[in-house]
Task: structure prediction
Amino acid sequence: MKVEFVSAPTSRLIASLVDQDALPSGLEQVLADAARASRFSGKPGQVFEGFADRGGRLIRVALAGLGEKNSKARLASLEKAGAGLVAKYLTSGEATLAIDFASSGLTASEAATVLLGARLRGWRHDAYRTKLSEDQKPSLTTIEAVGAPAGADVAWAAEAALATGVEFTRELVTEPANIIYPDSFVARCQARFAGTGLELTVLDEAEMRALGMGALLGVSQGSPRAPAILAIRWNGEAAGAKPTAFVGKGVTFDTGGISIKPAGGMEDMKWDMGGAGAVAGTMLALALRGAKANVVGVCGLVENMPDGNAQRPGDVVTSMSGQTIEVINTDAEGRLVLCDVLTWVQKVHAPARIVDLATLTGAMMIALGQEYAGVFANDDALADGLLAAGLASGDKLWRMPLAPEYDKLIDSPIADIKNVGPRFGGSITAAQFIQRFIDKGTPWAHLDIAGMVWADKPGTTWDKGATGYGVRLLDRYVRDNLEG
Ligand code: BES
Ligand code: MN
Ligand code: ZN
Result:
């Protein structure tokens, strides 16, 4: 979806933004009556459509509700207005949607928020649909911002970078596991990041073996596809400032391994790389908008398969940290991947703080459903910064506990630690496992995003499918805590 700033619309589809109970004064009487008759009141995201003869030309007139001006959910309402319009007109046959900002009274950044909602809602992945009929294909390609306030184009440039990052994450998450596996994930990033200033480093299997990453390699050992660690560095700040590390679980397919998952719904496990996908999309967004921060994004990429060579329940592996792990359940593989990636990033990049993102536990979905991701943290300032970024960006988070009583539950009778605890509190013991690999004094937060990566029905700014969760959250965290 292209966004263009113009002074007059070229399209015959023209939308006005309407505050709650305040139809535009210049609107044709018949349209105003029609809007009222169809109970259009300007609620956030509400869209009315009518037709008018303007200077002898048929105009499709859309009204999009902005809700109350002083609503606490103002940003979400602005987004809903843009997204609601695109949801309605994406396959309408119209190629261009003009949004009239001239009498909207919106600020530059508010206008950019409307456009962000519009652009995000327009994304689809149709690469594999070869038989869509003409009227099922998206027709809308361009949004004209008409009479936007001064500075809206500059505000939009940053949001456009963010949208590109979200879209890249959605693309990675949507691709099936025969297309996106560790090496092809890396290749897709290398191709996409060329010319952005992002610096990429790839660790291959031999290098991981030399580093002693027995936990990650144990997961990968049942798959013919080689694992990879992809580190993406963005230096937007004076040299020397320690980077913030974003670390993502990138299990490109999770069968469960020998502790194999049931067949029903197993196809969902193509998106078990949603944490790594969010990290890659965030790095792209930061680079495209020239963020003034030093950040390193690290993706731990493996495929978890059952095989004659796969690791067994009961196997003991030695992690890069030196800690030994009893693998009780080969389906608790995400933590085994993350622990070695976290040890590596601390050793090589000495980050000022670490945030990891992982589709780690089904128990997280039981606890929080699909509205909030869980955040576990050893540092209140980091947790508070992330919680605030969640509220501001719409990628919401809920704080979860860590405590020594939970930590005891993953002591192993034969090794230093086991990879699963009892059935209750499964998301917490998973977080405790990861915490054992975080150096003392390093602020760290773990985001369990299992419920957030994929949606079975459309949301405000996404169609059903990949949501791109995490990119807006991390980008907002960087803007509000690391920049300026
Ligand atoms: N990738 C899954 C978690 C998951 C499940 C994410 C469903 C999204 C939807 C993870 O690797 C896993 O299998 N976790 C197990 C842990 C258990 C064996 C302790 C789980 O949640 O059942
Ligand atoms: Mn698993
Ligand atoms: Zn998994």
About this structure: The longest strand covers residues 57-67.
